[in-house]
Amino acid sequence: MLSVAQARQRILDQVGRLAAEDVPLREAAGRVLAEEVRATTDVPGFTNSAMDGYAVLARDVAAAGPANPVRLPLRGEVRAGVAPPHPLQAGTAIRIMTGAPVPAGADAVVRVEDTAEEDGAVLIRASVSAGTSLRAAGSDLRAGDLVAAPGRVVSPGVIGVCAAAGRTSLRCLRRPSVMVLTTGDELRDVGEPLEPGQIVNTNRYTLAAAVEEAGGLVLDAGVARDEREQIAAALRQAAAADLVISSGGVSMGAYDLVRDLLAQEVRIDFWQVALRPGKPLAFGSVRGVPLIGLPGNPVSSLVAFELFARPALLKMQAREDRERPRLWARTEDTLSGPPHLEQYFRGVARRQDDGISVRLTGDQGSHVLRSMADANCLVILPLKTGQIPAGGRVEIIELAPIR
Fold it and tell me: Does residue 388 sit in helix, strand or coil?
């Protein structure tokens, strides 16, 4: 059997970066840039006030202080979004609001907290130097400045600076279309009555959510019963996708038909990994589209998605952060497993004065979905280890913030 690392690399070697497309700016968050973005104008385009206060000449208030305020006649007001009514004359002040253009002739703003108005004048109780509380034109961006380089993930901050640079759209890597197929006679949708032997099809929902969290677009292929023609018909829809993810049907049972169909009708690369949970994992292609066949047990399916499908989806989007952060922790529980398998326990990690400690989320059965829902990390028991005693050092994969 392949190790987890070998299987992941085999998958990554056979998925490629997707093409680029123009995306409206408001829809670009989380996408990866396929172009460089440069500012077309200075930002801000004019010198403006960083404070509510009074535009002045700094030399006029050089002697101002709490005990000896300087009195300046008021000559109007400038609001944000409105041009100054006239230039500032020496020996006067103009009331100004945050973001408003600074009048010609002014070289500083005195904040309103250091002033008081009286009979058409303002009393300045603090001296300021030239440039105080001014945002100079071009202090954020200069025309021609590089705003964002290709390969950068578009964050809310990047969207804001691109908007400031005058962009209404960005050229980004296309989001991968992912066909999600769940298989099994026993599966029923949420809300359907359950007869003896039937279970809710949780994989249909968890895998769709995992695909979307990784930036993919879900093509829901529904449920295929354990019948060869139903599964084959579902797989024929693969041409519309960039990746196919199935759950169930890849183990050794008489009705595990996904693996059988892959072996007979399409190319199969491998179908077992030295992993618990998630050993029965198939990888191949159907109609030229990569297919990752996940096991049917809910926890096995999600763990295998995390280790194999998520990195593949991120590679398709040219993301460099294909794996989540790995940290070292102290285990509160003894970890045991077969030495020939790499085991991933579900854990809750927390930060303490002497480092990170982690405890298991209870029953670690591959059918216990709550063990995954409660976890903020995966705890790794490496190949050829067998056991790590309580208090031992373990590597964990951070799934959610550890506090």
Answer: strand
